[in-house]
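Contributing new records

If you add data, match the layout below exactly. Sequence lines come first and carry their own label; structure lines follow with theirs. Keep one chain per record. Anything else will be rejected by the validation script.
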Amino acid sequence: MINILLRYTILFVLTLLALSALSFTLIYLFPAEPIINLTGITPQNSIQHDALVRQYRLDSAYLIQFWHYLEQLFSGNWGYSLISGQPLKEEVLTALPATVELSTYAMMIVILVGIPIGCYSGLRAYTNADFTINSLSVTVYSVPVFWLAVLFILTFSLQFGWLPLSGRLNLLFDIPSQTGFLFIDILLADDVDTSLAMRDAFLHLILPTLSIACISTAAIIRITRRSIIDVLNKPYITAAKARGLSNRQIFFRHVLRNALLPILPLMAMQITTLITNAMIVETLFSWPGIGNWLIQAIYQRDYSALRIGMLAVSTLVVIITISIDLFNRLIDPSREKFESVTI
């Protein structure tokens, strides 16, 4: 147990160092001089130029610059946006919860819909129901997320007018941001119709959540189906049938638990895809998340915001991926034993 935690801690630290080094290097890869990319200021004379260079340690060796960059990151001084002039730490911590919230609800749909349908498809393998589910999942998985989002907008917002077109909440509601998570902020807000605000927030959430969840749900259905079929062909399932256990008992005692274990590592990969799709969908629905924020930074050539935003999103993905893989190792000790034997 301790060895596993130690190995994952080392992996996490080394990964963050690599991401920080990449983020640091970006300032030299962007067009224009590094000092302009950092500050957004074009020095008017050599005195101003030298002062800015000394301030950001650009006159030192690269390793010293990188160490200074790490010190600034850990101290919370992430720099300032070249466009708004606001601290990047505040802007990232304001935008990131909206993306996490959107991705979390989409992942809930993926789990609650994808796994049951995948189990049903696996139990009815090679029947008409299985062929239909498999065909639909392949079709949905092949659709680009931005095209699916546009199709939802055209159909449910513009054609029928059932759901809001964009945004996170109607502008009539004045909800102060306390946690960054909208439903929690609504509950904490004073002088607001909570039920009405909740309903409006839920309606704004439906289309972007479905746009993200559909593709990952299709992937989880196929993964679950394949895992169920593999488990059903194991010798211990045949032995359970010989003992006279019912199909229900076999499924819940033996099939489901053993089929879900291989799915957990693959879900970590789907979370990465889901967050990436969320960042694309945010732009289409004007969702105030980190993806929309980064797109605006690209349009406005806010290089400081770009490198910090890239580092924040990458760190989030690494934390989620390593946490899921660690959780999978803890609940499946046989995986660690197998790896020890093979090594």
